[in-house]
């Protein structure tokens, strides 16, 4: 990636209406969740994380309306629950913000914040971050992007939180529904200095950098053809998003998901209605 201070996908942010209810739902799907975190006051949000290697998912809810979380609240009002933004890993957020400024994009931030973390031994520490966002209007396919510098990785990637009954290991792909895959993939490629690649089914892939997950832009119809038999109710035609998760043991995945999982070709899929507006497709990996 030409952006020297930013590497591939770091985590996917799933906006939810009721944070604790969503956390209980994901536990039932076989995920191990971190204890609930509360962000710094100006953020106005709380979260639960689902840790993989080298990436993760974040369930995010608004606790107190603030200027900072206004775009997230607007997303929920428009689309309901689901993937609202995708984070890249920032090596240096301040330098990364200047890199995109030099390319003509005015960054939001860098913003420093933290949340308390209860460690497995019962002690309390803090997870500290410095983030910056591309302008709010720059949201390819309706999904915003930002970059996150982890200042305390040891309080986020905790081994006990990285083992999941459903055998999820990492994010393999982020699928973003859009009526215009070519246009929106080109938009993302411009923002992160990558090249889009057309796929045989009409979808377009943009690599995120390093060995991290790829972005795939595709129509809702193309998504349905990739996962036949899976109801897509709850996904927006533009901005609806799915995660393809690599599983270390698909038999364990199927057992853990129970009736929420739908066999579709080589994948076991949780429909968006069962996962707070996010389609989850587990594949062998």
Q: What oligomeric state best describes the polypeptide chains here?
A: single chain
Strand order of the largest sheet: 2-3-4-1-5-8-7-6
Query: pLDDT under 50 segments (min length 5)?
Result: none
Largest sheet: 8 strands, mixed
Plain-language structure description:
- It is a single chain.
- With 285 residues, the chain is an alpha+beta fold.
- The chain has 6 helices and 16 strands.
- A hairpin with a 6-residue loop joins strand 2 and strand 3 (45-51).
- The longest helix is centred in the middle third of the chain and has 12 residues, at 181-192.
Write the layout of secondary structure elements.
Blueprint: E1 6-15, H1 19-28, E2 37-38, E3 45-51, E4 56-62, H2 70-79, E5 82-90, H3 93-102, E6 108-118, E7 124-133, E8 144-150, E9 168-177, H4 181-192, E10 197-198, E11 204-207, E12 214-218, H5 220-226, E13 241-247, H6 250-257, E14 262-264, E15 267-270, E16 279-284
Parallel strand pairs: 1-4, 5-8, 9-12, 13-16
Antiparallel strand pairs: 1-5, 2-3, 3-4, 6-7, 7-8, 9-13, 10-11, 11-12, 14-15, 15-16
Comma- or semicolon-separated keywords:
285 residues; alpha+beta; eight-stranded mixed sheet; globular
Short description:
With 285 residues, this protein is α+β, with helices and mostly antiparallel strands. Helix content is 20%, strand content 36%.
């Amino acid at each position: 990636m030409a952006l020297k201070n930013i590497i591939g996908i770091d985590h996917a942010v799933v906006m939810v209406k009721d944070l604790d209810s969503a956390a209980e739902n994901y536990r039932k799907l076989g995920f191990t969740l971190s204890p609930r975190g509360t962000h710094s006051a100006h953020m106005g949000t709380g979260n639960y994380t689902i840790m993989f290697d080298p990436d993760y998912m974040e369930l995010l809810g608004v606790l107190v309306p603030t200027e900072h979380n206004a775009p997230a609240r607007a997303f929920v009002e428009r689309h309901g629950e689901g993937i609202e933004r995708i984070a890249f890993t920032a090596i240096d957020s301040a330098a990364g913000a200047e890199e995109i400024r030099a390319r003509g994009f005015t960054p939001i931030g860098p913003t420093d914040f933290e949340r308390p973390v209860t460690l497995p031994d019962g002690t309390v520490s803090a997870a500290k971050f410095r983030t910056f966002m591309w302008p709010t209007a720059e949201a390819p396919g309706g999904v915003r992007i930002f970059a996150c510098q982890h200042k305390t990785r040891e309080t986020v990637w905790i081994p006990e939180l990285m083992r999941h009954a459903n055998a999820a290991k990492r994010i393999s792909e982020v699928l973003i529904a859009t009526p215009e895959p070519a246009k929106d993939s080109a938009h993302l490629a411009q923002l992160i200095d990558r090249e889009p690649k057309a796929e045989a089914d009409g979808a377009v892939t943009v690599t995120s950098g390093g060995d991290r997950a790829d972005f795939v832009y595709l129509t809702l119809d193309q998504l349905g053809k990739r996962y036949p038999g899976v109801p897509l109710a709850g996904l927006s035609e533009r901005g609806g998003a799915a995660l393809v998760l690599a599983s270390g043991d698909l038999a364990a995945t199927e057992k853990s998901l129970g009736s929420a999982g739908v066999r579709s070709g080589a994948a076991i899929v949780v429909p968006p209605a069962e996962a707070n507006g996010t389609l989850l497709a587990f594949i062998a990996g």
